[in-house]
Design goal:
This protein has about 500 residues and is of the alpha+beta class. It has nine helices and twelve strands. The protein has three domains: about 210 residues, no CATH class; about 80 residues, Orthogonal Bundle (Helix Hairpins); about 150 residues, Histidine kinase-like ATPase, C-terminal domain (Heat Shock Protein 90). Strands 2-1-5-4-3 form a five-stranded antiparallel sheet, with helices on one face. The protein starts with 14 loop residues before the first helix and ends in an 8-residue tail after the last strand. Its main location: membrane.
Amino acid sequence: MNATEPRRRWWPRSVRARAALAAAVTAAVILTGIGWWVHREVYRQSTQIAEEQARKHLLALVDQLNDGVVPVRRSAVPYEVVATGRRSAVAAGGGMDDFASGTRHVLPTPSGPYAPTDDTASWSYTVRPLRIPVRRDYDPGSGFDLAGGTYPVLYADVRAAELSSDKAAALGVSADATLRAYVVVLPDTAEAITRTTDGLLLRAGLIGLVLIAAAAYFTVRIALRPVEAIRVLTASVTPNDPRERVTVPATGHEISALATTINATLQRLDTAAAQQRRFVADAAHELRSPLTTLLTSLEVALAYPERTDWPAAATTAARQTRRLQALAEDLLLLARLDTRTPTTDLDPVDLTALASRLAEQYPLAERPLTLTCDSTAPACVRGNPDEYERLLRNLVDNAVRHATHRVQITVRDEADRVVLTVHDDGPGIPTEHTERVFERFVRLDDARSRDHGGTGLGLAIARDLAHRHHGTLTLTPRTLGACFELRLPRSPTPTEK
């Protein structure tokens, strides 16, 4: 077999065929159980009916013996009447007479003393299995072959002493003899009824299985028509035109939920594709600006080398190169954040200590600003220390670029949360842009433009880092400047454990 050829399996690939096969198998198991129960019940009921007929026949035989009447040979059930002190049977019929009646009886005579019953009690009989012996003088002809088989046998005893002498003589027994009437319960009727019932059940079961499988097949086929329509419409969705949506059935069943989910997924993909296209366009635009400045500066310097201020040209080239490097690093970090799951590094981090160290070490030589951290109490969270430092530095960078005189960092505990705020006294952000500032490469008005050295990705990176640590980053309203609020799950300090 070719290694690339798919393996053939007996299980069908079609959902319709699988449903039909599963329904047929399930129905077969259920029908088999029902058929077995019906078989047992029919056989039991038929056996009880045969035994009841034998009991009635035994009662008639006992009545005939008590009346001194020898039963006739003609009988629907096999019977034999034997007596002590007599070699041959008193009477036999129903197949037991196929044995040579002139020789000796087939079934045994009573042994032991006769046990009379209470006169007030009704007559009684005994049931036990007996084996019919195989004898040379037996010729069943075309009837049921009794010889060699073991059958349930009903029998009852009659004492000749309780009969008159005339009745005993009519029966051909002595006055002290004990007569025993046997009736054999044959299984052929019960077995025949059971076989007939089994045949009917088998045919009905096979027809039922075919009908059940066909009903399941066509039912699933009809039920899957909306799914096929969804598949066709979904297949028509292309990257160039991702706005196609599937039709939601009005039935309200699971397929409607599937269609709704697919539409929501297509909408998310459409939004993600639009964001990606916008991101690529914005990234290209942001890269073009420093590249154009760098290229223009170098081309002018090369065109007029004798009149070029080479230290200034090198300074401009270095500044634009650093800007390109920062932008490339931010883009790579965003790409990593988009593909990584929430952080699993659970190192304890003191945000107060981190914010204080950042405020002390942050370079402010270029502008006369004041950067302070007003908190001293420990505020512990869990996560990656490097990512927390990047988050805080991005917030501080943004505040420093737009502050007029002062940037203030505050850290406090609120129940099970640690709240860190970075507040600057700059021009602030309009209320309608409180969420747009966290989008990538979003340009606001000139008052908070990115021409001061930012890449336009700092706040987007900060919010992604906050979400990775199960926190939130929002812009809270202030009358002066902008205030960014970071909320993170609080971790117990070592003294609280």
